[in-house]
Amino acid sequence: MTAPLVELRGVEKRFGGVYAVTGVGLALYAGEVVGVLGHNGAGKSTLMKVLSGALPLDAGEIRIDGRPVSIQSPRDARRHGIETLYQTLALAENLGAAANLFLGREIVTRLGTLDDHAMERAALEVIRRLSPHFDDVRTPVQNLSGGQRQMVAIARAIHFDARVLIMDEPTAALGPAESGAVGALIARLKAEGLGIFLVSHDLHDVFEISDRVAVLANGRLVGVRNTSEVTREQVLEMIIGGADSA
Ligand SMILES: Nc1ncnc2c1ncn2[C@@H]1O[C@H](COP(=O)(O)OP(=O)(O)OP(=O)(O)O)[C@@H](O)[C@H]1O
Ligand SMILES: [Mg+2]
C-alpha cells in the first residue's frame, strides 16, 4: 500500500492552558476527501492551521509521502503542495479572476511590465479545469456569483501544483446552488488525485462529498469512518457524545 499523501501523528496544539488539539492522528490519501467534523471549538480549524503552517505544532509529527516534514509557515506548507482555502476567500474584489490568480506572483514581460495576456491565458487554463464554461477572467470578481468567486479562490489555491487542499467551511456563505457547484469542483479535484480535507458543519454536504469522516471533540479524535459504512445518526452521536459509538 502506498504511503498517505499526508499523515498527522500525535498532533498537539495548546493555547496557554487550553488543549485545542491533542494526540490527533489522521491520514489523507491521494484522490480522497476526508470530512472533518465536530462541535464548535472541537479543534477542527486548529488542526487544519497546523497542517497549513499557520500555527506551529507543540508536539507530534506531520508526514508527507511517508516522510516527516517540518511545517513552520504557510510557505513551508505550500512547498509541500498544501494549499488552504480560507472561508473569507480573500479575493481582490476590483480585479478579475486572472489578476486574482496571479496576485503577488504576477507574470511580467521582459520589459518589466505586467504580461496580462500570459496571465489571462494561464488563468483560463487553470479555471477551465474546474469550470469548463467560464470564459471571462477580466470581470471584477465582485460581479461574479458566490459559486464563481469560490471557484476563483479554489483555482488560485490549486494553481501552483497543489496536492493537498484544505477547505475550512467552503460553503458556509453560499446558497444551495452555489454549494452544489463547490461540490462539483471538489469532485473534479479528487478525480485529478488531490487529497482534500473538508471542514464543515453541514453533515449533508460532508456525506455527499467525503470518502471518510473524522470526528473531533474537545481537541481529540473521536473516530474515523468510511462514509459509506456509517449513518448520519451515528456520526451525529459521535459529534455530540464525543465517544465512538460503533
Ligand atoms: N488563537 C487562539 N487563541 C486561543 N485559543 C484559541 C485560538 N484558536 C482557537 N482557540 C481555542 O481552541 C479550541 C479549538 O478551536 P477551533 O477554532 O480549532 O475549533 P473549531 O472546531 O474550528 O470550531 P468552529 O466549528 O466553531 O469553527 C477552542 O477552545 C478555541 O477557543
Ligand atoms: Mg473552525
Textual characterization of the structure:
This protein is an alpha/beta fold. The protein has two domains: 1-81 and 164-246, Rossmann fold (3-Layer(aba) Sandwich), CATH 3.40.50.300; 91-162, no CATH class. 33% of the residues lie in helices and 26% in strands. It has eight helices and ten strands. It has helices at residues 44-52, 74-79, 97-101, 116-130, 146-158, 176-191, 203-209, 232-241, and strands spanning 6-15, 18-28, 33-38, 59-64, 67-69, 82-85, 164-168, 195-199, 212-217, 220-226. The strands form two sheets. A six-stranded mixed β-sheet has the order 6-7-8-3-9-10, with helices on both faces. A four-stranded antiparallel β-sheet has the order 2-1-4-5, with helices on one face. A hairpin with a 2-residue loop joins strand 1 and strand 2. The chain is globular. 40% of the residues are buried. The model has no long low-confidence stretch (mean pLDDT 90). Residues 15, 18, 20, 38, 40-46 line the site of adenosine-5'-triphosphate (ATP).
CA radius of gyration is 18 Å
Tally of extended strands? Answer: 10
**Element order: H for helix, E for strand:** EEEHEEHEHHHEHEHEEH
User: How much strand content do the residues show?
Assistant: 25-35%
CATH homologous superfamily label of the largest domain: P-loop containing nucleotide triphosphate hydrolases
Provide the list of bound ligands, each named once. Answer: adenosine-5'-triphosphate, magnesium ion
Number of helical segments with 4 or more residues? 8
Helix amount, in percent? 25-40%
- The CATH architecture of the largest domain can be given as 3-Layer(aba) Sandwich
